[in-house]
């Protein structure tokens, strides 16, 4: 099958959507599909973001300030690639991706749209109108990455198009091997619980909530913390930590993936306090690295973390603080979760399961008769 993935953002820009689109395209190519990617992200040679992808990447970059990912028309790529299906990847605001849905629909190409974010009130209002038009064209299947993210989408589409949950994928075998490589970094029984958080330090990830939570717990139990990532909130976070004498919090900045794995290997608990986390790829990676995960019960993390088994979930900041204190005070519980996480794979997040689910979505989109004249 000829599959064209379309995403506003792609490597070398680094984030959850970028990593997932790259991983999915690689897995599909290994399975025998003819895969290509179209993106509005420019190439930056020599930035060290990773190896050259083993599939073509069409960079339809528009000459706009700040490299805004609006992009040029997808029409020439559709004509040249002649895909059997266009798989569009969108966040809350993805102008290039949403235009691609319209363009592919007009060309009569089946479309699978994967929404990688949790829609808020503004997104729901905008897309309610768009879905009313798209539903009449046919050939559209919508997926999202978690049950939490599916709830607002289903309310918007109101049964006019199918909405399926297909998890993000991860190479479980690679993480198992990586755990063995870094096993020497694990220190059990240390006097301070080592809490790790990984992610972009941007407002939507609620980084200040993270620091306030750590400060609360640190006042009641001996802990240390490592915050991995960079973004516009980093300086504010560092000022907050200095002001409140939180010298036990280390900010590493952005790390490459092997370095992130090394940090996880030396930690005790992974903390993901954001309330609007659509999936939580970093939390999934931490779970595979053997860390108990503490996160929001209403977030996408709940799809692969069952309370009491893979970690602890809470509905408020106070709940998350209580969960960290419980894990700090109960090493047996913490070590039992860690052992379970290292030996039990989240099957729905493995690439074979993800590829099978998307194959079904492609078939469903292709089975409809697209009305190219609309």
UniProtKB/TrEMBL annotation:
<dbReference type="InterPro" id="IPR050194">
    <property type="entry name" value="Glycosyltransferase_grp1"/>
</dbReference>
<protein>
    <submittedName>
        <fullName>Glycosyltransferase family 4 protein</fullName>
    </submittedName>
</protein>
<feature type="domain" description="Glycosyl transferase family 1">
    <location>
        <begin position="193"/>
        <end position="341"/>
    </location>
</feature>
<dbReference type="Pfam" id="PF00534">
    <property type="entry name" value="Glycos_transf_1"/>
</dbReference>
<keyword id="KW-0328">Glycosyltransferase</keyword>
<feature type="domain" description="Glycosyltransferase subfamily 4-like N-terminal">
    <location>
        <begin position="15"/>
        <end position="173"/>
    </location>
</feature>
<keyword id="KW-0808">Transferase</keyword>
<dbReference type="InterPro" id="IPR001296">
    <property type="entry name" value="Glyco_trans_1"/>
</dbReference>
<dbReference type="Pfam" id="PF13439">
    <property type="entry name" value="Glyco_transf_4"/>
</dbReference>
<dbReference type="InterPro" id="IPR028098">
    <property type="entry name" value="Glyco_trans_4-like_N"/>
</dbReference>
């Amino acid at each position: 099958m000829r599959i064209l993935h379309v995403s506003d953002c792609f490597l070398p820009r680094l984030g959850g959507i970028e990593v997932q689109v790259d991983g999915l395209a690689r897995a599909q190519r290994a399975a025998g599909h003819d895969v290509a990617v179209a993106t509005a992200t420019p190439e930056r040679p020599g930035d060290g973001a990773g190896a050259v992808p083993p599939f073509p990447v069409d960079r339809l970059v528009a000459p706009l300030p700040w490299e805004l990912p609006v992009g040029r028309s997808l029409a020439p790529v559709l004509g040249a690639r002649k895909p059997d299906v266009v798989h569009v990847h969108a966040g809350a605001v993805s102008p290039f991706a949403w235009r691609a849905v319209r363009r592919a629909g007009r060309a009569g190409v089946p479309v699978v749209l994967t929404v990688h974010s949790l829609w808020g009130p503004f997104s729901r209002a905008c897309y309610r109108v768009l879905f009313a038009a798209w539903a009449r064209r046919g050939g559209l299947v919508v997926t999202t990455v978690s049950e939490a993210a599916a709830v607002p989408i289903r309310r918007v589409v109101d049964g006019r198009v199918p909405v399926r949950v297909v998890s993000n994928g991860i190479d479980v075998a690679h993480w198992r091997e990586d755990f063995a490589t870094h096993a020497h970094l694990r220190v059990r029984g240390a006097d301070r619980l080592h809490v790790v958080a990984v992610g972009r330090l941007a407002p939507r990830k609620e980084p200040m909530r993270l620091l306030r939570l750590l400060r609360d717990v640190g006042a009641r139990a001996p802990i240390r913390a490592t915050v991995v990532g960079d973004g516009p909130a980093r300086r504010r976070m560092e000022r907050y930590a200095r002001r409140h004498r939180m010298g036990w919090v280390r900010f590493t900045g952005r790390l490459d993936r092997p370095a992130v794995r090394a940090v996880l290997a030396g930690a005790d608990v992974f903390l993901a306090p954001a309330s609007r986390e659509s999936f939580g790829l970093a939390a999934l990676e931490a779970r595979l690295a053997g860390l108990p995960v503490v996160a929001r019960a209403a977030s996408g993390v709940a799809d692969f973390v069952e309370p009491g088994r893979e970690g602890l979930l809470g509905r408020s900041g106070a709940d998350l603080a209580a969960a960290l204190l419980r894990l700090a005070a109960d090493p047996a519980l913490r070590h039992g979760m860690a052992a379970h996480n290292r030996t039990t794979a989240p099957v729905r997040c493995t690439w074979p399961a993800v590829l099978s689910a998307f194959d079904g979505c492609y078939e469903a989109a292709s089975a409809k008769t697209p009305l190219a004249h609309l």
